[in-house]
Amino acid sequence: MESQPPHPHPSPPSPEGPPRRNLLWPLVAGAVALTLLVAAGGVTAWLLFIAERPGGGESVEFRLGNGQDPVPAEDVDLVSAVLHRRVVDLAAGEPAITVQGDTALTVEFPPDTDVAEATALLERPGVMAVHPVLGAAVSPDDGDTVLPVPSTSELLRVGPAGLGNAQVASAGFEHNPSYGQWEVQIEFTGEGAGTWATMTGEAACQSPGDPRRRLAIVVDEEIVSAPEVTPDVGCGVGLDVGATVVTGGFERTEAAVLATLVGSDPLPVAVTAVP
After folding, report:
1. What percent of the chain has pLDDT over 70?
2. I want to staple 269 with a disulfide (CB 3.0 to 4.6 A). Which of 65, 193, 219, 264 is the partner?
3. Segment 157-210, tens digit of pLDDT
4. Pick from 60, 72, 203, 184: which is nearest to 131 by CA?
5. Would you give the DSSP letter of residue 2?
6. How is the beta sheet containing 59-64 ordered, strand by strand?
7. Can you tell me the distance from the alpha carbon of 43 to that of 38, in angstroms, rounded to the nearest whole number?
8. How far is CA 59 from CA 47, 119, 163, 240, in A?
9. Digit-coded pLDDT (tens) for 69-121
10. If pLDDT is split at 50, 70 and 90, which confidence band does 48 have?
11. How far apart are CA 117 and CA 138, in angstroms?
12. Burial class (CB in 10 A: 0-12, 13-18, 19+), 130
C-alpha cells in the first residue's frame, strides 16, 4: 500500500499581520474628503462674509461743512446716519461709512451701485417744505418767493412754509397701476396732520382754478408738485386724513429719491464729494 504524503501544516501568520495597503486607502480618502469639506466650508463662510459685509464697492470721500472748521460730533453722527439711510433707500445695499475726524467721512458703496447717482443724492440738503401759494408770478423778480413749476413755464409766488421734515412721520413710494405712474406717499405726525388740515382748509376757500387754491411741495427750494385742493374739500375744514400722495410723472428712481429726502432729517451741514 502506497504511503500518502503528509499533509502540509499551514504557515504561521506573519508577525506584522496582513498587508496594510487596503486599510490605508480608506483613511487617505477620508482625510482628503475631510480636507475638501473644510475647504468648501471655508469658501462658503468667506462668500457669506463678503455678501453680508457692508460696502465692498467704490469709495467716495465727502467734506463736511467747509472742510476746515470742526463739525460738532452730534452733527457728524446725524450726517452719517442720514447718508446711510439714503444709500439703503436706493435699494443699493448696506454702505460702509468711516468718519475721518470732524471734517470728513468716506462712504464705501455696495457693489454695483450707480456711484454718480448715489453721490448726487448724498450731497443734497434734503430740506422739504409745504408752502401756501399766494398767486401766479410773471417773472422771478415779482417779489416774495417765486419758484418755477417743473416741466412748465409757470411761476408761483409762495408764502412761508407751514410744514417741514419735522412734521413728516414717514414717506414711501409705489407704482399706481391705475394711473401707470410712480407716487410718493407722505404720512404726517399728529402736529403735521393738524397743520395740513388747516392749510388745505384755507386753500379750499379759493375758487377752482385760482392759484391760491394750490399748495406747493418744495424740496431743496424746487417745487416737486403743486396740487390744487379738490372741490370736495370744504372751506375751513380741509383734509383731516393726516397724509397725502404726491404725483409728478416721476420715474422710479425719482420717486425713491423724493421719498428718501422727505422722510428723513435734512443734513445739518453741507456735504460735498471730494474730487
Report:
1. 80
2. 65
3. 999 999 999 999 999 999 999 989 999 999 999 999 999 999 999 999 999 999
4. 203
5. P
6. 96-100, 104-108, 59-64, 271-273
7. 9
8. 21, 10, 35, 45
9. 999 999 999 999 999 999 998 877 899 999 999 999 999 999 989 999 999 99
10. very low
11. 34
12. buried
CB atoms within 10 A of CB 233: 19
Our CA dihedral for 146, 149, 153, 159, rounded to 10 degrees, sits at -20
Phi, psi (rounded to 5 degrees) for 72: -55, 145
Local structure of 187: helix, strand or coil: strand
The predicted pLDDT at position 133 comes to 98
Q: Is residue 40 helix, strand or coil?
A: helix
- Cell 470742526 identifies what position? 70
**Res 142 pLDDT > 90:** no
Give the CA-trace dihedral at 75, 76, 81, 85, to 10 degrees: 100
- Beta strand 128-137 with 163-164 is antiparallel
As a whole number of angstroms, the distance between CA 5 and CA 230 comes to 124
- Using left for φ > 0, alpha for ψ between -120 and 50, and beta otherwise, residue 143 falls in left
